[in-house]
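Can anyone check this?
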Amino acid sequence: MTRKLYYEDSHIKEFDGVVRSCDEKDGCFEIVLDKTAFFPEGGGNPADVGTLGKVNVTYTFERGDEVVHRCDGPLEAGTTVHGVIDWEKRFSNMQNHTAEHIVSGIVHRRHGYANVGFHMGAEGVIVDFDGFVDDMELSDIEREANEVVWRNVAVTESFPAPEELPGLEYRSKLDLTENVRLVTIEGVDMCACCAPHVKRTGEIGVIKIFESIRRKNGVRIRMLAGSRAYEDCAAKARSVSRVSALLSAKPEGVADAVERLLVERDGLNYKLGGLKRRIIQNEVDIIQNTDENLLFFEQDFDAKDLQLLVNAAKEKCSVAAAFSGDDGSGYKYALASKSVDLQEPVRDMNRALNGRGGGRPELVSGTVSTAREEIEGYWRQE
């Protein structure tokens, strides 16, 4: 059995332990010590990483009553080794996990909802509740959660005796009856949890709820706390400052400035669309009627522009084909005809020009990944 130092003091960063076993498996070494401060993955909390002597601990997990350290090198059984936890990662995990307890405790007290899903990853802390909370209420919950941080209340852990559990009101996803570890945030929450936590809520620093998504009968929120919340907010503040300078607008007025730009863009796009339609019509008007196919290459035409062009040109030919793009990135295309069912011809063209697309018998569109010379050669044969 491994002595779990992280239960005795969550803030232990370094320790000495005796190597009990070292087994090579799948290109790495699984090392068990007599005691460890490395927390194994569990309860939605990531595993600790760090070093044992000169080898790197890349993952930590539980196997029965042992904590196993997956390492990139071997250690000799019976030797004493100095362990060092990646404290920046561990402390950030503790900040975020304790913050989740605070938010989940507030939601449970206010609405009676249970936390039915929890994950800490690169995208942040994801929490699922079995009831819906709107954005206005979440904003108020975020404020209350930060007030808990500012009060700097105690966070304690305990292992109550089995006979004590029925008399305690605590949150738990599982129906546990023994070896229950309760994490208590003074005056806020009591929850069964196996992970390390901060000792006082002031260590969290800040809690930020970023978004909520309605899911079936509940809601999923994404949140961050502590250093990760600070870094996220700082990065966004820098981005807002850059946009503010580019728009010559105050940071608090950036959204209004962007809305004005979007309105201007839509107006310009409308005018540009009118100009393109006139250009297309003028281009088609000067074409003589023919029983042959017509091939067009246009710069900066989107799919809708190409369709407008071939729909106008089909009145003067058998099949009108229009392409826009370049040899490097490929070409968008549209084909139209009054007299030819294009579904079989477009399949032939796609096979010949490495393309994909389709549509109605009289109008098809898609893309090809080939050079202009090959496109022109194909249509000369048609």
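Reply from J.R.: I decoded it. The longest helix spans residues 254-285.
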